[in-house]
Specification:
By secondary structure, the protein is an alpha+beta fold. It is 39% helix and 22% strand. It has six helices and five strands; from the N terminus they run βββββαααααα. The mean pLDDT is 95.
């Protein structure tokens, strides 16, 4: 047996691989975005069944193969099970995961993006925080993490939207989702983030199309 490694991560995507296996895309702190196979995860009673669910977050035990990893076990600290009961938040969460997969690269440390994704899923559960604001904060910060942003919004932006822009870029991730905006300021902030998206993102996200169609 190959040497086992342990890494902290979150399952971004899970898809069938044959009759009983699953193919996972995991964003890890130590190794970036990786592909792993969970052998037998679709079998009833398999210990890999629960850790192979999207958004499962914790410590994954893997072995490295030639082109992918094999999952041997996991200690999951958060399944974000409440997303199964909240369709709107689940759609946002899927979009966040797809966006993280867009930027993730194997072999490039992914700790900051992983923490951002984790905090963003937690923010979706806050009733006082609109999901559409969580989305725009997440979009701006993940682009900032990857160096694709302008330091300041357009000059015509109001003070509140300007402050929000600067705060999102620089704030500690644990304190990122600690403000709200009135409707006018949110619209300004949203327009700035959307403009930045058009400038730097070269693809359409399938999960975002679903989100737009449903909400």
């Amino acid at each position: 047996m190959r040497d086992l490694i342990k890494t902290t991560g979150m399952v971004l995507m899970a898809s069938p691989a044959g009759e009983y296996d699953k193919r996972l895309v995991i964003l890890t702190r130590e190794r970036g975005k990786i592909t792993a196979f969970a052998r037998g995860a679709k079998r009833t009673g398999s210990l890999l069944r629960a850790p192979s669910r999207p958004f499962a977050f914790g410590a994954f035990t893997l072995s490295e193969a030639r082109e992918a990893y094999n999952l041997y076990g996991a200690e999951i600290s958060n399944y974000f099970e409440w997303l199964e009961r909240d369709v709107e938040s689940a759609c946002y969460a899927s979009y966040f995961a797809e966006f993280a997969a867009y930027y993730g690269r194997e072999g490039i440390e992914g700790g900051e993006m992983l923490l951002l994704l984790y905090q963003s899923l937690r923010a979706l559960q806050k009733e006082a925080l609109p999901n559409r604001l969580v989305r725009r904060i997440y979009e701006l910060r993940i682009m900032a993490v990857n160096g694709e942003y302008t330091k300041e919004p357009p000059l015509e932006t109001g003070d509140s939207a300007r402050y929000a822009w600067e705060y999102v870029i620089a704030a500690p991730l644990e304190k990122l989702y600690t403000f709200i905006l009135n409707e006018e300021s949110f619209r300004e902030f949203e327009a700035c983030v959307e403009r930045n998206m058009r400038r730097h993102i070269d693809r359409e996200f399938h999960s975002l199309e679903i989100l737009r169609a449903m909400f």
